[in-house]
Amino acid sequence: MNGWTVHDIPDQSGRTAVVTGANSGIGYVTARELARRGARVVLACRDRTRGDAALELLRTQVPGAEAELALLDLADLSSVRTFAAELKADRVDLLVNNAGVMALPQLRTVDGFEMQFGTNHLGHFALTGLLMPRIREAGDGARVISVSSGLHLLGTVDPRDLQMDGRYRRWIAYGRSKSANLLFIHELARRLAAVGSPVVAAAAHPGYAATNLQTAGGRLEQRPVAKHAIELTNRLVAQSAEDGALPTLYAATAPGVRQDDFFGPRVQFWRGAPVRSLRAGWTRDDRASSGLWDVSERLTGVRYGWPPRV
């Protein structure tokens, strides 16, 4: 694992990968490098204009790439269902749940959920469930990878206040949504292991990588000082999106990835080659993960049916 780079990605020919949020940043790099190694890549993006631009750039950087754009808004469960229904793939070998929002003002999804929890967790929970029959069809070598964050340490999911209707704090809401990503992977991994499935569920985080994710909140609230401060910090201390994508690519492709693994940069929560990462103990709590799974099925209306509850 030491010194692992994109040059170590195994051949992906014949495999189909779905990458959410693939129009920029870590998602784009992930999609591009999978395509470079031969995968058929579906760029699942919310905005058609940005998605088309990303697809054109990918085809320029990887001539002959087998790649396509499909629209997906994780903050709208009807969009998630439409994406899954219209996806032109009999099997999905790799699902990378990468898209997300960070530290937004208090907003609601189309379905009325707190925006960060609804987008970062519930949207991906529903997407994974709807695609699970095709992930199972891929069989040996299939993986579900969720992109979390070192900031999951800010807090775990509070089942009494999932929507943070009490006191909303943008960074706590973000941390909780990233803990939810890890709890989801933990529970999915348990259920897959219980039935002996070859499908692997694992997670990754990029450390501190310079992407447009950090500045979205400032743009929405028209807080130019906050936006410029984050941009300056990104330039001074953050690693590139290219390097930030390495833990995700490792989790998605490297041999020896185990159920419920979590990868991040070698210098914890910051930069470096991918290694197994520290994580909060609460993200491995069976009772919490099972409870979150149950409430996620209820809120989204997506019931996996398989793997069974354990």
Automatic annotation (TrEMBL):
Write the record's keywords in alphabetical order, separated by commas: Oxidoreductase
In terms of superkingdom, the source organism counts as: Bacteria
Keyword Oxidoreductase among record annotations: yes
Q: What is stated as this protein's family in its record?
A: Belongs to the short-chain dehydrogenases/reductases (SDR) family.
Q: What is this protein called?
A: Oxidoreductase
